[in-house]
Amino acid sequence: MVEAVVALAVEKLGGLLIEEFGYAMRRTHVQSEVEWIQRELIRIKCFLKDADVKQKGDDRVKNWVKDVRDVSYQVEDAIDTFIMIKSTSLNRRAGIIKRYVCCFPFLLNGLALQHKLDRDIRGIKVKISDISASRITYGIENIGGGGGEGSSCVFEKLRERRRSSPRMDDHDVIGFDEDMNMLVARSLDEEKHRCVISIVGMGGLGKTTLAKKVYNSTSVKRHFEICAWVYVSQDYRGRELLHEIAGKILRIEKGKLSMMSREHLEERVSKVLNKKRYLIVLDDIWETEVWDDLKTLFPDVMNGSRVLLTTRNRDVAIHADPRSSTHDLHFLNQTQSRELFLKKAFPMEDNSLTCPPELETLATQIVAKCGGLPLAIVIIGGLLSRKKKTPNVWLRVLQSIRWQLNNDPGQLMEILALSYNDLPFYLKPCFLYFGLFPEDVEIPVGKLVLLWMAEGFVQQRGEESIEDVAEDFLEELVDRSMIQVAEKRYNGKIKTCRIHDLLRDLAMSEAKECNFLEILDSTNIDTCVTTRAARRISVHSSLEEYLKLRHPNPHFRSMLSFSRVQESLWRDQWKLLFKSLKLLRVLDLERAQIQVLPEEIRELVHLRYLGLKGTGLQRLPSSINYFSNLQTLDIRGSKVSRFSVQLWEMPGLRHLYLEKTSIVGHPPVHVSAMHLQTLSRVSIYGNDWILGLLEKLTNLRKLGIHGYFASQTEALSRCLVKLSNLQNLELKGTEPILEPTMKLLLNQPSIDKLHLSGPLEKLPDPQEIQPNLTKIILEESRLVQDIFVTLEKLPNLKILKLLANSFLGKEMTCSVSGFPKLHGLELRFLDNLEEWRVEDGAMPSLQNLIINGCDQLKKVPAGFQYLRALRELFLFNMPDEFETWINGDDSYKIQHIPSIVMR
Predict the structure, then answer these.
(1) Is beta strand 443-444 parallel, antiparallel or unpaired with respect to 494-498?
(2) CA separation for the pair 328, 374 (Å, rounded)
(3) Whether the Cβ atoms of residue 805 and residue 827 lie closer than 8 Å to each other
(4) Is the dihedral of CA 27, 33, 39, 45 positive or negative?
(5) Of 50, 670, 705, 754, which is least surrounded by CB within 10 A?
């Protein structure tokens, strides 16, 4: 993590050099000092690789790393404070006092500010000199190399504890029967190519246990002529691993192996395997390079040989064999978790797996705390097997379960920490950021990405947008089994994600150790922010509790509020809050009730993310345009009806989420907000800025407009043609959208999501609609023609929602081969719909169907039984007759659907 902190400090220094000294006619003393600090920090960063690991076992390294982190934070504070004072001073004078009146006083203030920066920089330089010298003084020159004796000893012990062996069988294995059968079948199938079968999942899920079950299967042992089990581990040692493989295949003693060259060993191993059908298990691979080193040992002679590997990193699995699908392990469900827990907690009991009635509730709560992670269940169950079976004892374990897991001899948290230590430095702050979110919440990825950007965790790569880079970072965390996907979007991107409770504990533990974050909740109000060193605070209790803290932390760069209640503060309290947090980059006050932002907010000049969603805000301050660094402004769910035209002068703005808000005033000739990608729910009632301005926002990806379109149809049409990056378009109004406009909207090749709310004259013919549309939402369209006749011809449509009054007809038909890729369909409040027919071969990919409030649809649609891919059916607010048919004569039409929900 310290690498990321240093990298941010280096970036800050570079920005200062450009902003303050880039146009100077001559070099200054301060400039030279800043350049020296930047160079020295870059050198120090080279020594920080693996520092998070090395400091665990060596106090010398730990203290040195802390010094580096602290001085990097000091660099950041000095520069941000300098910029904040300078910017607020300029803003106060702008437009108030004539320039010639304030020149002399400002010159004095500017000189004093420069002297302060000079003094701060000199102090930082002295500290960095001491840090560089102390690395040699304390004998830790090779921190970036092999590591100290203490750290290597600690991790050698952990490596030996984790070393797997196929002979160490786990009898109490729960929930793996289906997985084992699938893997055995893949191992024995008729595929002649040498295949790599990968078991992928987070630490503690049981990858090694499952691999042992497959390896020791009787049918597997009979099928393969050579079987070998090799433990790889995170601490990969190429020569040692080659010796282990060669020893098991060639049956040669270790002493003789050490006398043979690598080339000779590889040749002999490959020669033996060339003649036999083999199964090699590579347990616990972390890097793709490991496979690259070993793959030449495993020849493909078309005899059905297999390599079975376990890994936490999906990239490793795909790299080893792109043709072979990965086998993803999942968490145990409630029933499986309970069964495993009872087996471990009552090992001497019979196979009845019963729990004493007085412990039943506690057992359920303890199992829930483990989150379906087998290793956690085994550890807690084993602990309770050695304790008295009384409610008081079990209650104490429940109350201290996180401490128990952190301190157990099985070293669960150390095992999970291996995944964190393996992260590249740019992903570590992204992972730690999950510690800010409350437990057991689904995190919206759209918001998470914008927060990462505002924090400075994400840098642009070539011409790729920062948003896309941030999404790649999240995908990488998912592929490394650190983060779970909760829900995906229509285009395959992640919509929401979550983190396992134990990994969240790990994130919070690592984050607090490096002053990355602080959590304020009901359990720590008296002790929170005592160090005044944390860089971020997440408020889980209330903002009022935060304001009661005697010594608020002026170094906070982020404040996120997750208060469970809609709290309202007095105006003076808001002023106090903003005055104490002048270096903020992120301020998220979602659901906090605030009608007007005080003018003091103008001093938050570093602000990049301002979240005011659901706050009830009535107006924005006139100083909003002072936020030249602001990237995201979210006022959805507010009462702000008007927004000054000054927003177009905010050069950093990328995402603007409004709530039917009008932008008033004449737009400027030159638009600064050229990076704007999201302009959502903007009202054009009585506005004329579309023509001449919208077409300039060529980076727009998402556009949502509310208003009367008839008067601006021509202007809107001209602009849309020029928005070549537009992917998501939403139009809501009360006037009909005429057919020529519909043809234009449905023929923009870049748009893949279209949401239209309001009357439509008619849908164009299928050949007049571009094929890239993947999601369509229609609402209040009042169409009489059968919508399916047109839309079922779209080759890539995946999601279709027909909402209230979108269709006023009585009959709809899905014909053969219609909707070839549709995954989700929702029909809501189609009041006139009486009959729906589904022909055999229609909607072959449909998995999710929602029918809600279609009062005239009395029977299950004819042909429903042909929807063979359907997995989830939701029926809400349907007439009693429909339910009667569902449970009676039409039951055969839905018996193939695994999940049916009726309300």
Answers:
(1) antiparallel
(2) 15
(3) no
(4) negative
(5) 670
